[in-house]
Design goal:
single chain, 171 residues, alpha/beta, Rossmann fold, seven-stranded parallel β-sheet, 7 strands, 16% strand, binds magnesium ion
């Protein structure tokens, strides 16, 4: 368990996380944040490109689980659209949800990755749970409140790298 704000992997967008990359890291399960990672807030239907990407992952034998703190049932709707399973109200950055994912899939956390747009929930939670953390830029970081959060997160990550000397890679 490590308390770190530094993602192991950084990607511009979710679809940059390719089956080939995940296979090269021996990842069998990709936990996926919902809001601003798969789709915009309040949108239950994911973009066409994401649907296609999800199919490719499925064909490569990698299971996607929607892994959301959301408590309004939207994760289930999106999961239905993508044909994948979901866990809601997972309470990231606590590690309970990750243990639940382990039980649900029978795959150990060492063979899971989590892709998400927030440092203080997604990345911190995955790092604490020893799950490979993949930070993707929020879909809409131009909205004023998201832009500010994104800026603060970037500063925290940069300072953590500077003072903690953590390794990360870019996709
Ligand atoms: Mg999010």
């Amino acid at each position: 368990m490590s308390f770190s704000f530094v993602p192991r992997v950084m990607a511009k967008k979710l679809t940059d996380v390719t089956p080939a990359f995940l296979i090269s890291r021996d990842i069998k399960v990709l936990l996926c944040d919902l809001d601003n990672t798969i789709s915009l807030k309040r949108h239950a239907v994911p973009p066409e490109k994401v649907m296609q990407w999800a199919n490719e992952l499925g064909s490569a034998g990698i299971e996607i689980i929607i892994f959301s703190n959301n408590r309004h049932g939207r994760a289930r709707k999106t999961a239905g659209q993508l044909g994948v399973r979901c866990l809601e109200r997972v309470g990231k950055p606590r590690i309970g949800g990750f243990l639940e994912a382990e039980k649900l899939t029978g795959v150990t956390r060492g063979r899971m990755a989590l892709a998400g747009d927030q440092i203080f929930t997604d990345v911190l939670g995955a790092n604490r749970a020893d799950v490979t953390s993949i930070w993707v830029e929020p879909i809409n970081h131009r909205a004023p409140h998201l832009w500010l959060r994104f800026l603060v997160e970037r500063i925290v990550v940069a300072l953590s790298i500077l003072f903690g000397g953590c390794n990360y890679e870019k996709l």
